[in-house]
Design brief:
single chain, 355 residues, 2 domains, 6-stranded antiparallel sheet, 39% helix
Length: 355
């Protein structure tokens, strides 16, 4: 991670922790750790799940990840798992940060945490920085680099012990359809559609797993770090909390749900969080075709993965909106999320009708 495009600033009051305790723990437990002084701490503002900080020493900068205060869903905030996945991947997938240390002891700062290297580069948000230096051809190269990186991840040997332990084997597609359908029904509020026809279609049309490999499960342009010398290339992939073993086309479908292209309408562009509609960026169809070419996998059932990716994103948005609806958060950003849920239901049904 780095400051450009990464929205780093002062630590929020509710997210503060004992910096001296972290420094002391690192000195006692991290191999070869001997910087001078106590670090300056800043916080990354993006992300709605685990909290991310930068620890800046005179000689180096590090990244600390920990769950939010009061987090109760262990599987969603398992710092040890996230640490082990990245450590296991490093040898065969260099685009993960190097891990420094994992602290399972809640007594240090109130919950577990891990520390990793800081990657220097650019993280894209909703628009292309003026000084990035990428023309249309460069942005097309970036899209191809983005997919090449995903193909490389999907080719990693999943039998390594720390990786094999994160999956449940065959039946991934069926588990995902059933699981996300259950989550939507549990999160539904009175002002959003039922999605029953979409869920019925997904249940009836689900294909068998096309493979069982390491998948990121939240692969987006705003979760990758671009090389400082050549921003058309990717040097890092961040936010591994949802990584698992599963169907690679489900991973691609999840990525494409966020992929806004130039020809999309105002509703889709209003939800944009990465600049994939900029001139030169590949369309969703071009991305999928390039993935098929590079991976050698058939995408003949692509409509299913496209619909599922949009449905899954709708569930994520609805889960966030439900918290606002129930008064569990007052963040005004979430006030109109229910309208996005309607939009995604409409897109799913249009895709189903055109199948």
């Amino acid at each position: 991670m780095e400051a450009k495009g990464a929205d780093v600033g002062a630590v929020r009051d509710e997210d503060r922790f004992d910096v001296a305790a972290v420094d002391a723990w690192l000195r006692a437990n991290a191999d070869g750790f001997a910087p001078t002084g106590v670090p300056e701490v800043t916080q990354f503002s993006k992300g709605a799940s685990n909290l991310t900080y930068q620890l800046t020493y005179p000689e180096q900068a590090l990244i600390l990840r920990r769950p939010p205060a009061g987090a109760k869903i262990a599987s969603a905030h398992d710092m040890g798992r996230e640490f082990r996945v990245q450590r296991a991947l490093k040898a065969s997938f260099p685009s993960v940060p190097s891990m420094v240390a994992h602290c399972p002891d809640d007594s240090v700062i109130g919950n577990e945490f891990y520390v990793m290297e800081k990657l220097d580069g650019t993280i894209l948000r909703s628009s292309i920085p003026r000084d990035l230096g990428l023309d249309a051809a460069g942005l097309a190269d970036l899209c191809r680099s983005f997919i090449d990186n995903l193909v490389t991840l999907h080719a990693v040997d999943p039998s390594q012990p720390d990786l094999a332990a994160i999956g449940r084997g065959e039946g991934y597609v069926a588990r995902q359809v059933a699981g996300w359908s259950k989550r939507y029904r549990a999160a539904r509020t009175w002002n959003v559609p039922s999605f029953e026809k979409v869920m019925d279609w997904l249940d009836a049309q689900q294909p068998a797993d096309v493979g069982n490999c390491v998948i990121h499960n939240d692969y987006r342009l705003d979760n990758v770090v671009l090389a400082p010398g050549d921003p058309s290339q990717i040097i890092g992939v961040l936010d591994w909390e949802m990584a698992t073993l599963g169907d690679p086309l489900m991973d691609l479908g999840g990525a494409m749900a966020y992929w806004v292209e130039a020809g999309d309408g105002r509703a889709m562009k209003a939800l944009k969080r990465q600049p994939t509609d900029a001139p030169g960026m590949l369309t969703r169809q071009e991305v999928v075709a390039y993935y098929a070419e590079r991976s050698g996998r058939s995408v003949e059932d692509w409509r299913f993965y496209e619909v599922f990716g949009l449905f899954r994103l709708a569930v994520i948005i609805q889960q966030i909106y439900r918290r606002y609806h129930l008064g569990q958060t007052t963040n005004p950003t979430f006030k109109r999320y229910w309208l996005a849920v309607h939009y995604f239901e409409l897109r799913c049904r249009r895709l189903i009708r055109s199948a």
